[in-house]
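User: What would this chain look like folded?
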Amino acid sequence: MKKTFILMLTFLGAGIYAQDSNKNYSFSLQQAIAHAIEYNYSSINSGRSIEAAKEKKWETTAMGLPQINAGVDYTNNFVLQKSVVPAEFFGGKPGEYAEVAFGTKHSMIARSSISQLLFDGSYIVALQASKTYLTYYQNAKKKSDIEIKEMVINSYGNVLLAKENIAILEKNIASLTKTLNDTRATYKNGLIEEESVEQLEITLASLESTLNYNNRLLDITYKMLKINLGIDINDPITLTDKLDILTVQNIDASFSNSNFDVNNNIDYKIASNFEEQRTLEYKLERSKALPSLSANFNFGYTAYKDQFDFFTKNQNWFNYSNLGLSLNVPIFSSLARSSRTQQAKIALDQAKTTLNETEQKLKLQYAAAKSEYEYSIADYETAKSNLNLAERIERKQQIKFSEGLSTSFDFNDAQRQLYTAQQKYLQTMVNIINKKASLEKIITQ
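Assistant: Here's the prediction, encoded as structure tokens.
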């Protein structure tokens, strides 16, 4: 009995843990966008790139600040270098030489140095480049956020589209099943041909197959949305916005008439940033023809011993210090420096051409996105009107078919026309949302 109780507690705890391990999410479209910008995997890494760029900027700045180093050098002269001197220095005979070893077996130096860059044109340009480097990653983060927003809108809309498709298919299947049952009863009474029943059975089987496909598609679209949101694909999620409401909210004819300033586009900013980098690279190569000046100060202590006992009280440490200046003046590099400068100039010209090309392409993209958004609104209105007509035609054909005034082929044509109109109507709703997102992507500052 005790073992059974323990097992029950174990399974209960495992169940509670399993429930806690999965988070339940509920998002409107705007909430989903805000969540994705913070937790999307690309967004997280873009933020880290900015932090790395800030560290890189400080690394470059620190190159021109005082540099302090310290160290200890120990040498064990286990075989001392020997030399010869005239033996008469030590009372020997003239003309003879005596071997003498100079130095001690052990020596130690404690040293430190301070260096300071006084002037270097390359350093000044590097400081400017580090700011541009940081700006580039900040713009890259903005571009990533804009793209994430568009992806979330598209994936959010695809989920709603799949759900609406399923709801309509289930409604159509229920209606067609009732019609099929009535038709079978009429056929048993001998009032219609078997072909009419078979035609409806084919249509029903097709609808059921399409429903099965959309159920599978819904699962995939949910997982795609979760990836864009930066959450686990197995976590439950609920979408609170409805497709028809979002469609109405995104219909704004005046929105497409807003002024487009290419300078506010993130792609243009990145291209401009790229041109600025190439400009600084050109300046860097030119600055290498300037002289550079640096200063250094060195000091330390040296000790010598025949035994390794440097840390006794009577140990003598001999100090030294010096101050130095270093001036480097480039004179002639066999035109290598000139060649590097010309390469940088060519790269700058290429960047300017790329910037101009980007401007023209963005203007074209804006015109295309604006046209597609305006068309999506008109297409939606047409699809809505066609759906109403298709519903009326199908309803009339159903009445005629049930009364024996129309053939199954006419009824089947009306059904297919209705199903096509339904799909078209739903797709135009999603198109409005997606096309507006595409237009916003271009004009967003």
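Confidence is low (pLDDT under 50) at residues 1-9, 11-20. If you want, I can go into more detail on any region.
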